Structures are given as C-alpha cells and as structure tokens.
TrEMBL record, chain A:
Keywords: 2Fe-2S, Electron transport, Iron, Iron-sulfur, Metal-binding, Mitochondrion, Transport. This is 2Fe-2S ferredoxin-type domain-containing protein. Its main location: mitochondrion. InterPro entries: 2Fe-2S_ferredoxin-like_sf (IPR036010), 2Fe-2S_ferredoxin-type (IPR001041), Adrenodoxin-like (IPR001055), Adrenodoxin_Fe-S_BS (IPR018298), Beta-grasp_dom_sf (IPR012675). It comes from Chelonoidis abingdonii (Abingdon island giant tortoise). It comes from the Eukaryota. One of its GO terms (molecular function) is electron transfer activity.
From TrEMBL, chain B:
The gene is FDXR. Its cofactor is FAD. It comes from the Eukaryota. Keywords: Electron transport, FAD, Flavoprotein, Mitochondrion, NADP, Oxidoreductase, Transit peptide, Transport. SUPFAM superfamilies: FAD/NAD(P)-binding domain, Nucleotide-binding domain. InterPro entries: FAD/NAD-bd_sf, Ferredox_Rdtase, Ferredox_Rdtase_adrenod. Pathway: Steroid metabolism; cholesterol metabolism. This is NADPH:adrenodoxin oxidoreductase, mitochondrial. Belongs to the ferredoxin--NADP reductase type 1 family. It comes from Chelonoidis abingdonii (Abingdon island giant tortoise). Its main location: mitochondrion. One of its GO terms (biological process) is cholesterol metabolic process.
Length: 183, 435
C-alpha cells in the first residue's frame, strides 16, 4: 500500500484479501475492531462469513511480524504486528506503555506518535506526504530518520524492526537541570 | 497515575463541563484535534481518578484548604485572559479580543453574549498566529464547512455576516509569522476564497531561508509559492470565482483604533510602518516614522493569551504571566505544583502541553518517592473538600453528570445535523443534571 491516506475520525480502508467480495473498512480502532463490510455479490456472502470468522483463527505466523519499540526510559517493548497495521495501531492494539502516544488517533492532527527509525529502514519506507511532513515539523527531537507512527504500515520485510520513541525536550531539560543541581 | 499504583487524583474545574481549550479553544472545523478527549475520558474513568466540575478554586474552596486535604496540589488553570494592545481606541465597541471571539463561537459561557459586529466588509486581525488564522477561517468559511460543533447562535450570526475580506496584520515580517504550515495550507485552500499576498513581501526570501531549520523553511516556501508562482489551473479558477479574500500585511504596528462618527464603533486603524532589526525569531520591529491607515470596523486582537493570579497566597510573576516554578515545583511552596500554560506561558499545541504535564507529574512522583511529600500524614482528599463545598452551598458536577450533559448535547446536535449542540448556559447544564 503506497502511503496511508490521513484518516478522518479514525476510519480507513484496506483490502481484506481475495476471500472477500467487497472492500473492508475498519471502523474506529481500540480494544475491539468493528468491521463493516460491503458485499458486491450474493456469492460473496459465504466468503465474507468465512473471512470474518477466520480472521483471528487462521492468521498464519507469516502474517505476524515482531516489532521492538525502545521507550523513552530505554526499556525495550516487543510486540507482534499484523501486516498492514500502522505502528500506532500496534502500540494501541498491543497495549504498549508509551505515555501519550497517538493523542489524535491517527488523523494527522498531532505529532505524539513520532518515531525514529534506523537509516536503512527509513530509506525503504513509503514516500512521506506533505500532510505528514506538516505535522512532523512540529515534533520534538526531530531527526533525519523521523516519521509519524500512524503513517507507517508494517510490511513483511520489517520483521524484527526496532524503532526509538524520541526523548521529549522536556525530559532533556530535566536532565540538564539535574546536572546543574548536582554541580 | 499509571506509574504509581496507589495515587488518587481528583480534578477540580470551574465550569460544570471538562476539557478546557480542547472544547473551547480548538476550532469547530478541527474535530480530529479533539480526539484526545477519548484519552482524557479513559483517564477519568479510572477508579483512582475523580472529576469535580462547578467548583471555583479561590472562591468555593481555597488553595490552602486543598493543601490541607491533599498531599500534592497541581495548578493547571491555564490562561483565561488576553494580552491588551495598550493603544487608544482599543475599547471601542467593534474591537474584540480573538480570545473572546473564539469563546463565542465555541460556546464558552462567559462569551455567549458577545454579539460581534459582522456588518462591514473588511475585518482586521492583529496577530499572525494559529488563533488569528482560526478566526479568519471561521469568518470566511463556506457555511457547510462550519456546520460542526460550532454554536447555533454563532453559526446564524456568521450566516448573516457581511465580512468578505480579512487582513492578518503583523508587526514583523514573513519570517516571524507564528502560525504553522498545516493551518496556513488550509487557509490557502479554503473554498470560495483567494489569498492576497504582496509579491514585494516575498521577493528574494528564498535565498534567505536556505539554511534555516526545516519547519520554518517549508512554511516560508509555501508562502513564497502562493505569492510568487502562477497558480495551477484548478487554483486559478477557484481564485477567479472567489467571493471572499484574506491577506497578510507585514511590518505594521497598531498605534490607534480610530473612532467612527458616533464615537462608539471603530472606523479604522492607524499603524506604524516598521523595519526589522536583527533576524529570525529575535528580530525586533522598529518604527520608521511612516504611518498608514486601514479602513475597517471589525478589529480582532490576537496577540496572545494571558494567565491571571489565582489568589494572593500563590506566587505569581505578573511580567511573565506565569507561576514561578522549577520543573513544575512552585517556588517556595512545597506540595504545590503547576503545569501547562500557567507554568510555561500561553503558547503551544496539545503535544507541548501534554509533555509539560508529564514533566510536572514526574516531579510529583520524584517527590513522592524521595519523601519530599510527607505521606505519613494521611489526607482526607475529597472527603474534607465535600463538607467545605456543602457548607458553602456548592454542588460539584461529577464525570457521570458530565456524561449526561454530553449525551444531551449529542442528541440535540443530531436534530440539527451536527456532532453536538453545545449548551452555553451553565444554569441549563446544572438543571439538566438536577442540581
């Protein structure tokens, strides 16, 4: 999928695969993924039922990747991710303890899902849009390999990916304060 | 309190309803920014968190009384006032602070009777920040874009508005604009409008920004492009058929608001033409002696918000407009903390204030862990505050009370094809939850 479109109000589109007759919309996210499906032909109804019921039961391990997030305190958080999930969705779905991550819920209205990638991984990511750059420009600790987690979708080749949650400016000031006080 | 298993947090708020600027400051056509309400709601639902609205600190209960009831008190009451221009005529009837105008269209109870004068074609906004752009956009947007959670009353007033042209006037130059690129892009693309950018303001600017950090560079490049480059076919067609326009005027510092014949309304604004000394963020605007006048009736002053001191027992720096503190610890007042705009000054978006709050929370946690806060004294928390409020005839609004108000607003909104119809009268809110 070439670059995820900004999603208004948390909706988005993705193809479920050859089993489904129509497109599958993810309606909101969070604890429960509610899936609304549009059916293009009667014969697809059975396929749809199969797809819906098989969604969580028959995910082969090939479809799941491992992603590591280095948190602000240096702790490594490891999570499993589904192909096509955005890194923000991974954090939310896997309940990772990253404070204040994804305040605007993936709608390109904040920069709290800012992540730092390794150079070689960064180069292979889908092209960044102007809309993402506009919000990334406001992020703290911006680097040359920064992206917004809500706009980067997990691909098979990203298995074992490690990303860094940026240390916020406020934290850096705290370190300088502490240094000053201890002198 | 995810980091401390036993901490209980009670939140006190003056209005019956929570969320502050997310409800009353964020523009009605920016609903995605308000998604953060879901995170707030989740926090409020924790059994170690309680919300008490309709309680005015400094009147219904004093900070000292809170300090007796709690181990730590965090002041995060923001900036409820605005910077004043300090020029003659600023109190004429058609001059308003952007803060009051934003409060008006967002249903802030204290601004519901503003009745801004929208009867003339040209409006001047003093200031070039995101609030200035919000105000210009709300004045010029097609009504179908505005039909969101903007109040019914203000939408009706805007529907009758004669305003066709909005100038955003700044004392300094294009390299000092305070608005950000997403908001500028939105303005440039606003249906039914065309931008009025003087090419003379932007010629040669491309060279100056070559080595400037990316955010400032991209923002300036967008302005340069819109001012100097020939628009594409679609854009050219839109600009040609536009019935409304907005523009940026630079290096103009307000000197006086000129009164109309009736002596009550404004008829224009006199401004000093400035030149810049220095460059970048620290450039200063210096008068050249030249003066210019701009004809207008509606003037909106968008030069910054301002915090006010809460009560005389709390240290407050009137010059900086903040509570003096170190990493959120109020100076000279153990057990007292501050966060947000009242701690750092009234600028920043959600991420800024959120990080700042995490920072203050970190200070509180450290003080808890290091024994700076004496936990051996058990504190009564809301139990003692409840009896104080009761004795003063004050009835706090709980979070589930808010949820009843929320449901009523959403239901009323549905009838009008809007996500919600905000209730703007606090008495009506209290009646709804039978207080």
């Amino acid at each position: 999928m070439a670059g995820r479109r900004p999603r208004k109000g948390g909706g988005g589109t993705e193809a479920l695969g050859p089993l489904a007759g129509g497109k599958c919309w993810r309606v909101g996210w969070g604890g429960a993924d509610r899936v609304a499906v549009s059916v293009s032909s009667a014969s697809s109804i059975f396929s749809m039922w199969l797809a819906l019921t098989s969604c969580n039961l028959f995910d082969s391990s090939v479809d799941r990747m491992t992603v590591h997030f280095i948190n602000r305190d240096g702790e490594r958080l490891t999570a499993t991710a589904k192909e096509g999930e955005s890194l923000l969705e991974v954090v939310v779905n896997q309940n990772l303890g990253i404070d204040g991550f994804g305040a605007c819920e993936g709608t390109l209205a904040c920069s709290t899902c800012h992540l730092i990638f390794e150079e070689d991984v960064f180069q292979k990511l889908d092209t960044i849009t102007d809309e993402e750059l506009d919000m990334l420009d406001l992020a703290y600790g911006l680097t040359d390999t920064s992206r917004l987690g809500c706009q980067v979708c997990v691909k098979k080749a990203m298995d074992g990916l490690t990303v860094q949650v940026p240390v916020e400016v406020a934290d850096m000031r705290r370190e300088l304060e502490v240094e000053k006080q201890s002198k | 309190s995810a980091h401390h298993r036993l901490a209980r947090v009670d939140i006190y708020e003056k209005l019956p309803v929570p969320f502050g600027l997310v409800r009353f400051g964020v523009a009605p056509d920016h609903p995605e920014v308000k998604n953060v309400i879901n995170t707030f709601t989740q926090t409020a639902h924790s059994d170690r968190c309680a919300y008490y609205g309709n309680v005015t600190i400094g009147k219904d209960v004093m900070v000292k009384e809170l300090q007796r009831a709690y181990h730590a008190v965090v002041l995060s009451y923001g900036a409820e006032d605005n910077q004043i221009l300090g020029i003659p005529g600023e109190n004429l009837s058609t001059v308003y602070s952007a803060r009051a105008f934003v409060g008006w269209y967002n249903g802030l109870p204290e601004n519901r009777d503003l009745k801004p004068d929208l009867s003339s074609e040209t409006a001047v906004v003093l200031g070039q920040g995101n609030v200035a752009l919000d105000v210009a956009r709300v004045l010029l947007s097609p009504l179908d874009i505005l039909r969101t959670d903007i109040t019914e009353g203000s939408l009706a007033a805007i529907a009758c508005s004669k305003v066709k042209r909005v100038w955003l006037v700044g004392r300094r130059g294009p390299l000092q604009v305070a608005f950000t690129i997403k908001e500028l892009r939105e303005m440039i693309n606003l249906p039914g409008t065309r931008p009025l950018l003087d090419p003379a303001d932007f010629t040669g600017l491309g060279d100056v920004i070559k080595d400037v950090p990316r955010p400032r560079k991209r923002l300036t490049e967008l302005m340069i492009k819109s001012a100097l480059e020939k628009p594409g076919e679609k854009e050219a067609a839109r600009w040609a058929s536009a019935t409304k326009e907005w523009g940026l005027k630079f290096q103009r510092s307000p000197l006086e608001v000129l009164p109309a014949a009736d002596g009550k309304q404004a008829r224009g604004i006199r401004m000093a033409v400035t030149r810049l000394e220095g460059s970048g963020e620290s450039a200063r605007a210096v008068p050249t002696g030249e003066v210019e006048e701009l004809e207008c009736r509606l003037i909106l002053s968008s030069i910054g918000y301002r915090s006010l001191p809460l009560d005389s027992s709390i240290p407050f720096d009137p010059k900086l407009g903040i509570i003096p503190n170190s990493l959120g610890r109020v100076q000279g007042a153990p057990g007292l903390y501050c966060s947000g705009w009242v701690k750092r000054g009234p600028t920043g978006v959600i991420i800024t204030t959120m990080n700042d709050s995490f920072d203050t929370a970190q200070s509180v946690l450290e003080d808890l862990q290091m024994g700076v806060l004496n936990l051996s004294n058990s504190k009564e928390g809301f139990k003692s505050v409840r009896s104080i409020l009761h004795s003063r005839g004050v009835h706090p609004v709980t979070f589930s009370d808010w949820e009843k108000i929320d449901a009523a607003e959403v239901a009323r909104g549905k009838l009008a094809g809007k996500p919600r119809e905000k209730i703007v009268d606090p008495q009506e809110m209290l009646q709804l939850i039978s207080h």
